[in-house]
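Design request, tokens follow.
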């Protein structure tokens, strides 16, 4: 009896629940029918219609569109450095220019002179060995033509040993060394005709005096020395001459 009451009550409650659900569904259907935008809000999936639209863009256009949506990465090497790095660079350059301007000194083709102590004016100049220095100059500039023994080359360069031009007036050999010699010259029946260049631009007054002294006291010659100040005076006396001497020109100049 108790069981019958229980099943009876249960069936009664179940019918009531199902009635309540039907009423609720009817109410929802009425609300949906009353909404005029219901059809517009329904998705293709709700209506059973699926939209499958074909994209007519090419693969290149699709790839380009995808790349445009991607965030562009900055190019490597164009990143701006920190401000303190530029400040250090500017400060270093400023200090470098200041230091060079303060301690570099003057611009000169002989910068070592700026750091040497000039010799006292009362220092006695060292005496020059004219013969030793003249031998070096002769070997370097004269020996190839006048030969080691001063014998010269027949028909081209006259001998120096026993030459009155060498042991006579020292002005003649000094001017020939300074400016050179050209044209024919006859010595002991032999004609010589070869061009001798001038060495005035290559040799100092001391070099000119030493080489003339050397040939005047070598190869059997004996004659007084020629001093550098004498060579300097002769150089100044013929200042402005650029051509080599002929025999006639040199004779006229010495007279």
């Amino acid at each position: 009896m108790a069981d019958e009451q229980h099943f009876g009550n249960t069936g009664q409650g179940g019918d009531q629940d199902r009635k309540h659900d039907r009423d609720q569904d009817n109410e929802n259907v009425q609300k949906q029918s009353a909404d005029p935008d219901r059809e517009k809000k329904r998705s293709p999936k709700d209506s059973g219609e699926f939209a499958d639209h074909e994209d007519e863009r090419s693969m290149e256009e699709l790839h380009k569109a995808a790349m445009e949506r991607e965030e562009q990465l900055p190019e490597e090497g164009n990143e701006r450095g920190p401000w303190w790095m530029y400040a250090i660079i500017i400060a270093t350059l400023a200090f470098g220019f200041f230091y060079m301007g303060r301690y570099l000194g003057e611009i000169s083709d002989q910068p070592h002179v700026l750091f040497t102590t000039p010799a006292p004016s009362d220092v006695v100049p060292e005496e020059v060995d004219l013969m030793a220095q003249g031998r070096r100059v002769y070997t370097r500039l004269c020996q190839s033509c006048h030969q080691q023994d001063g014998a010269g080359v027949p028909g081209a360069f006259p001998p120096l040993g026993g030459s009155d031009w060498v042991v006579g007036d020292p002005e003649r050999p000094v001017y020939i060394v300074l400016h050179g010699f050209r044209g024919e010259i006859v010595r002991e029946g032999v004609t010589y005709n070869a061009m001798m260049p001038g060495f005035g631009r290559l040799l100092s007054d001391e070099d000119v005096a030493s080489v003339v002294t050397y040939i005047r006291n070598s190869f059997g010659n004996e004659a007084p020395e020629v001093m550098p100040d004498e060579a300097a005076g002769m150089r100044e006396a013929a200042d402005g001459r650029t051509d080599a001497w002929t025999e006639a020109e040199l004779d006229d100049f010495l007279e």
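Comment from the thread starter after seeing the answer: thanks! Confidence is low (pLDDT under 50) at residues 1-11.
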